[in-house]
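2024-03-11 09:14:02 INFO queue: dequeued item Rieske iron-sulfur protein, len=220
2024-03-11 09:14:02 INFO validating residues
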Amino acid sequence: MTRYRKQDPEMTRRRFINAAMGTTATVGIVSLVGVLGTANPVFRLTRDKMPPVEGDVLVHASASKEGEIIKPSELSEQLIRAWPMGKDKEGNNLIRKGDPNNVLAVFRYPKGQIVAPTNLEATIDGEIVAYSDICTHAGCSVSDDDQQEGQMKCPCHSGQYDPKRGCIVVGGPPPRPLAQLPIKMDGDKLVVAGFFLENPYPFTEAEWEARKEAVKAQLA
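2024-03-11 09:14:37 INFO prediction written
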């Protein structure tokens, strides 16, 4: 008698990558690195790999506009992906994309629509908010949910988040919300106002505290 192994109903990362290579339109701009995610990074901490730090400017992460400073007028309820851009040791602009987990999701909503548990003091006028764009389940890059307007959905295992409510988990397997990044305006630029308020993927709370101290020491 032939025995059949029960298949896991979730799409595995390898199957997802194979599908993405054959049908990129269904995946959008999820990068291969974003699909794979990463384990806790075991590499020397350099400025291009640092997480967003106070003073970094948000720039476009999409291929067509990568490196261009994001203007508030470009923002809407549609997700815009961003990189934090800081400075190298010589004072030159440096996009912190050495760690793919640094990619961000930025939104703008009409006043009053962003509510708790979002940290409103970490938003711009309660209208513009930024989060890590890396799913807390398996490290995939999250996208807009085209089936549920106003939500974010991970294409790997269907994790869902609500960016109007602190990116809390509203569906699927993610263990915790996406980490919120405090931002502010500096002239016409969106600028990072501090470290992520919670530990972003792939860090545990203890690892995140250690990473922040390492960054502070290197920038001192």
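2024-03-11 09:14:37 INFO annotate: The chain is about 15% helix and 20% strand.
2024-03-11 09:14:38 INFO item closed
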